[in-house]
Amino acid sequence: MGWPSSGKGKGKSSPPWSSGKGGSWAPQAVHKPWVKQTAPVSTKGWKGGKGTKGGKGGKRKFTDLPESQQTAIKDRWAERAAEEGREEVDDAPCTGTVVWRCRSYGWIKPTSPEMLPGKVLESMATMTEELRGKAAEAGTDLERFTEDVLYFRVSDRADIGTKIDKDMEVTFKAYVDSKGAGAMDVTPA
């Protein structure tokens, strides 16, 4: 019994994986092709490893930016509004409630939609109907569009430093553009 001899002498034979003094057989990791193989993140090594330094730094508030950057950003906002064909319909301020808001845009439900000009009402109804269809298709956000709403961008605030949040009462001026109806000069009521 035992392992086949390598041809030298008599005595106990050793398994083929043992080689020399003090060697012990260590099991090798089993290769599993169905598991995604990832390389360990290096914290040491050449050029300091990954993620130790650099980057753009933290985000800064718009009000903390230099005046030149603020005007450049405002010019881009105005250019985008012009591209979309934004047309202020009525100068009278309206009121409403912010139904939903994310980082860059939101939706306002007018308090009394019948007070809005007909052009805005028609555009708002068409836009909201399209949004309901898209939401139903995707299976999300149906509660946002149960009633007709107006779109607003965070850049449409009257004062950039003012915070506009969900369920907040606001005043605004209505507009229409190529995408539908929206609210501009948004301020807390």
Walk me through the structure.
The chain is an alpha+beta fold and 189 residues long. It contains two helices and six strands; from the N terminus they run H-E-E-E-H-E-E-E. The chain has helices at 67-83, 118-138; strands at residues 87-88, 94-101, 105-110, 150-153, 169-177, 180-188. Strands 1, 2, 3, 4, 5 and 6 form a six-stranded antiparallel beta sheet that branches. Residues 46-55 have a biased composition (Gly residues). Residues 1-19 have a biased composition (Low complexity).
In summary, what is this structure?
The chain has about 190 residues and is of the alpha+beta class. The protein has helices spanning about 65-85, 120-140; strands at about 85-90, 95-100, 105-110, 150-155, 170-175, 180-189.
